[in-house]
Amino acid sequence: MMRAALQRAWLASLVPAERRYRWALKHPEAAQLGLLRRACKSGGAYSDDHRLHTIDSLGAWQSKVPIVDYDTLAPYLERARAGERTALSRDPITLFERSGGSTGTTTKLIPYNAGLLADFAAATGPWLAQMYRRFALVGTRAYWSLSPVVQGAKVTDGGVPIGMADDTEYFGPVRRFVLAKTMAVDPSVMHAPDFVTWRRVTLDQLLAADDLGFISVWSPTFLTVLLDGLRPRWPRLRLVSCWTDGPAAAQLAALSDILPGVPIQPKGLLATEGVVSLPYGDGPGTALALTSHLLEMIDLAHPERRPLLPHELRVGGEYSPLLTTRGGLVRYHLKDIVRCVAPLRIQFVGKLDQISDQVGEKIHARQVELALASSRHTFVLLAPVMVDGRASYCLYLEGADDPDAVARALDVHLMSGHAYRYARELGQLGPLRVAVVHDGRERALRALIEAGQRAGDIKPSLLDSRSIWSSIFGIGRAV
Known about the structure:
The chain has 479 residues and is of the alpha+beta class.
């Protein structure tokens, strides 16, 4: 009774955020232009250097303010890491969060401050309010992704903290208090000494929670690995929230087998850098986060043209988002690919920068996804290997009826690309290899945790450019 009363009071506090968001859905251009005016007054060294305070229109914004990526912002990020907490925004940086979006070797540290967390809350508030109403979750407990703590530096050289303890830190203090009172697993599990202990303790508490109503994770693989071999029965479980688009789509069948009949809600496109979309309303995909950040979209069919605002997107078109956030990222190119599936609604497609290039072959994750779309498997990963001093690739497969046939089909598809075919013909790149693996998801998850990623943040990918996989799965046989 007390839990339900606490949740009802908390949900009442979300009404203003939901009301503002519903207004923005009806007036998207006005909502976004309001965020543009806010961005022009952001302050901080970056804002001053680019004279954002002198900009008074969208046209001036798009003509005078450069599009940037992480490397472009490196000088300001370095100043922030060294302790200059207003290098990017007037609102001081309170911590850096590791980005889980890259398959490269460099960990990106994204600046966070109170303004950015408020921007996240502008999206999570409407989502939670509608979700609790629609799925009758009042009175139940929830499981929020609680990953083993990442090892490594906890502060930058300038003394700025690195990393959040868990996913609930994206919410404000009141929401965190309510969530803490309704969590099915104690947060102390994050400090388990190893993966095996973390899984055992988490499962013990989860399986004892007969009032579990909601599960929120990022990757469906995280949950299938956690529940591997189990068929849990939670009589009040009404919803799972996780990624459902792009490479994650292939993993949903395994999750549905474990939790039959439980609805799976798309997570939306929430990056470490900011939020692009949220699960709200009806229709395909997820709704654009119109009250969180200024969103611009590069039209991938016409990248030379000016980026579009949300209300200008064409249904069926593919785009790549630019974010301007109160964390200090200004026209930051979030190198994702999204498809507009309905007015103001998008679906994640893949990553623009998910490329492996050892000798000039430039394999893109989207190529691998298209080549394997019709094949049957429970785990798949293409990764570089070295064989007798020569670069090559190995396709790691689990659950395929004919692994060699799957690998040959992939090789044919890749050979249709000039760069890959040229590298093969010159002998710079050896023949494609294939290896049948067992417990692939769990072994891959463990490897990435040991490499420093948080389990709950690991994004599913069919292509990984790191060289760690041959030591985990071997180098396979040539096809």
